[in-house]
Every structure is written in C-alpha cells, then in structure tokens.
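User: Okay, second chain of the day. Same drill as before: sequence in, structure tokens out.
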Amino acid sequence: MNGHTLYSIGELARRSGTSVKTIRFYSDCGLVPPADRSPAGYRLYDDDAVARLDLVRTLRDLGVDLSAIRKVMDRELTLSEVAAAHADALDVQIRILRLRRAVLTAVAKRRATPEETHLMHKLAKLSEVERRQLVGDFLDAVFGGAGTGSTFTGIMRSMTPELPDNPDTEQVQAWVELAELSQDPDFRALVRQMVQEQTAGYIQGSPPTLNSDLAAIVRDQISPVVAAGVEPAALRADPIVAVLMTRCAHLLDCCDDAESRRQFLARLERMNDPRRERYFSLLAVINGWPAPESLRPVLDWAVRALQARTQG
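Assistant: Same drill. Structure tokens below.
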C-alpha cells in the first residue's frame, strides 16, 4: 500500500460528512470495503473507498436501494440500468403523490366530510380501465337508446373525459368532481332528457345543423339583448321573445302558443341547470380543452323572459 494515502474510519467520516456508524454499516455490507487494517486492527480506507462512498451516498440520496447499489458496485448492473429503473419507479411515486395532493387540496377547499374524503380518494385512485368503465356507465345511462350513427358518436365523444397519463393537480381535482357528478342519479336523468330532446329531430346518420342547436339559437338571439341591457319582463322584450319562439318552433312538440312557451321554458330551465355548465367546464380542464363559453347570462335572460310571459 506504499504511495497510497490511507484514512481511518474517523478521518473518512470527517472528509465525507458521513457518520462513522453509517460507514461501518456500508463497509460490513461490502459496499465500501477497507483497503487495509492498522497494526491494531482498525480499518483503513484509500481514495477508491472515498469515491465508492461518494457514489453510495449519491445513490442513496436518489432513493436507490442497497441491493441495486451492490449490483452496480459488483458490475452486475450498469449505473444507467439502475438509474432507468429507479426513474420509472419515481414516475409512479410522483403520480401517486399528485393524486394524494389533489385529493387533500380538494378536501381542504370543500371542507369534505370523512365519507366524501373516502369517495374522492377512491375516485382518484381508479385505474385507466376503471375510469373508462365509470365513464362508459354514465354515457350508457345518458345515451342508451337515444340513437346511433356519427351524430351520436360525436356527441358522446364531446362528453367523454380522458385523464392524461401525467395529470396535473387541477386535472385530478376536476376528474374527481366530474366523476362524482356523473354518479348523481338526478344529474343523469337531467342529461338524458336533454340528450333525448336534442336528438329528437335529428335525421339518422346526418349531422345536426346550427338551427337544431337550441343553445346556439339562444346565444345568437339573446347575447345582443343582454349586452343592450333590455329587461326580460319589459314590453320591448316582447318581439325578441316572439322571434326566439319562431326560431325554435321546430324543436317543440306543439303549436299552441301558451303550451309551447311552457314547454320551451322547461327546456331552457334544464339547460340552465348549473350542473350542466359545471360538467363541461370540468371536462375542458380534464381534456386540456379551452374553457367553454358560459351561457348562463343568455339562459338566465331567456328563462326570466319566458317566466314573465307564462305566469297564470
């Protein structure tokens, strides 16, 4: 060993910032073997041991287990192989931590009960297959029997959440809330009725036209009125309501003015249910789509205008 600097275990501890106990443990494991022993039997370490100790500490700080480190030291595995395996494991851990953080954040924001917390945690942990089953069950309940063809496939696709492989916290929170909402029987019944109403006039296999889109008609007709500050119950709103009724007459099942207004009002109230807009807002977050335009101002106006003209 002449010409080589040797260090006692205490000196190695001071040089590396590692405790004597830890170095002794690594030494006993064969990860940092001593280069020699003193006449009194104490362990002595050389520069190679210093380098090995630095590598062991680095890998331990990165979360690599001792078994894998030993294989690297013994040349059974390359460092790149170990790094790749642990990077994959960390990806899984990061996803789990994101889920936990999202649930805890949601619990704090919503002041959730223990039961709600359990449900949110359960929904966040669902596998991709389980998520698809949950979404499929919702879509079947909403669209079952409504029709077939490209029109209905497109509508269903536009309502399908697809959580990415590496969702951020906001997407996980949106998924949990949307999953809860989709399990609500009242919401399912609401959406099913809206789907049936929306698809009732469609011709099999043909795409819907703009005129068959009630939301688009109301938006186009009422947005300027809202911007102009016209009161829904005012006399000057009468012709506006009349035009709206005419534009939407083909979507109604009756011709009687009083009954058609009541029917139209009921449809507008269903469209104006805050859960509908919330669903599509959450869907946009999950799928990474632009936030949808809020129809609340125009629907509120139209609902109030019809209510004022159907009373009694």
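The longest strand covers residues 43-45.

User: Thanks, on to the next one.
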